[in-house]
Design brief:
Radius of gyration: 16 Å
Low-confidence stretches: 1-21
Order of helices and strands: HHHHHH
Largest sheet: none
Distance between the termini: 27 Å
Length: 104
């Protein structure tokens, strides 16, 4: 059984990120403040061992791909971009712990 999560989180989550100072994209709003509601939303994914293992396997494959790109990259900005992608993919390794802690 596959778990289908909506691409966009529920609007109720986005409303919590409204700010008067400067506008953010919907994605930036979500990443700035991962609220308990969002953590609880993600619990559906991280508590399913099969789904979480697939996600971690995918992240590991993408990390390996980016490491190969890193070996041949010559442009400094491209190297930094690849390193950032690897760092973000490594966050999937601790996603379950982060979500469980955040949902408490």
């Amino acid at each position: 059984m596959l778990l289908h999560l909506p691409i966009n989180p529920p609007l109720i989550l986005l409303n919590k990120f409204q700010t008067d100072k400067k506008p953010y994209s919907d994605t930036a709003k979500i990443m700035l403040n991962m609220t308990k509601s969002l953590y609880r939303f993600l619990l559906l994914l991280v508590n399913n061992k099969e789904q979480m293992q697939r996600l971690q396997d995918y992240a590991a494959a993408r990390i390996a791909h980016h490491q190969k790109l890193l070996e041949t990259a010559k442009d400094h900005h491209r190297i930094l971009e690849i390193q950032g992608a690897i760092a973000e993919l490594r966050r999937f390794e601790t996603l379950r712990d982060e979500v469980i802690e955040g949902s408490k």
